[in-house]
């Protein structure tokens, strides 16, 4: 969720043609991140199954936080970095925010999501080889598609 906040901050300080490409990339990124988080949230155990007592509250909180963090980052960026700043200073801030955002995304993707889906998932382990290969090809296609959107 902090990643979405940092993306919002980056979008708020981006100008010119870079804004358009970053905006399109963020739209696709947020779409697929929302789908991924939705799947994760839906797979949480329900309180009827003997799970955590406040699971419905946790689900609602996670959904609301995801929906609010990116716009909150944009608002914070617009308030903190008004257009009176020097161009070089704004480019430096934009570069730092983009680097922080990319680092957080790479960590979350590699450690949290890929490990959970490819290393810790017993269903994928027991599936046929062609299903495992399809999962890897789909992952690669998603990486290529996001790289093309970001260009």
In short:
The protein is an all-alpha fold and 151 residues long. The chain has helices spanning 2-13, 17-42, 55-80, 87-119, 122-126, 129-149.
User: What percentage of the residues does DSSP assign to strands (E)?
Assistant: under 5%
List the helices and strands in order: HHHHHH
Helix share bin: over 70%
How far apart are the termini? Answer: 24 Å
The number of distinct helices, counting runs of at least 4 residues, comes to 6
Record the SSE blueprint.
Blueprint: H1 2-13, H2 17-42, H3 55-80, H4 87-119, H5 122-126, H6 129-149
Helix pairs in contact: 1-3, 1-4, 2-3
What features would you highlight for this structure?
6 helices, mainly alpha, 151 residues
Descriptive notes:
The protein is an all-alpha fold. The protein is 81% helix and 0% strand. The chain has six helices and no strands. It has helices at 2-13, 17-42, 55-80, 87-119, 122-126, 129-149. The model has no long low-confidence stretch (mean pLDDT 82).
């Amino acid at each position: 969720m902090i990643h979405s906040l940092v993306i919002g901050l980056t979008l708020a300080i981006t100008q010119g043609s870079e804004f358009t490409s970053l905006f399109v990339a963020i739209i696709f990124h947020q779409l697929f991140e929302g789908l991924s988080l939705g799947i994760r949230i839906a797979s949480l155990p329900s309180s009827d199954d003997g799970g955590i007592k406040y699971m419905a509250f946790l689900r609602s909180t996670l959904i609301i936080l995801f929906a609010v963090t990116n716009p909150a980052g944009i608002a914070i960026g617009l308030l903190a970095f008004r257009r009176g700043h020097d161009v070089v200073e704004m480019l430096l801030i934009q570069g730092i925010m983009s680097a922080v955002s990319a680092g957080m995304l790479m960590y979350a993707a590699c450690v949290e999501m890929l490990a959970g889906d490819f290393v810790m998932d017993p269903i994928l382990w027991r599936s046929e080889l062609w299903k495992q290969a399809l999962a890897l090809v789909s992952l690669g296609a998603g990486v290529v598609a996001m790289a093309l959107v970001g260009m």
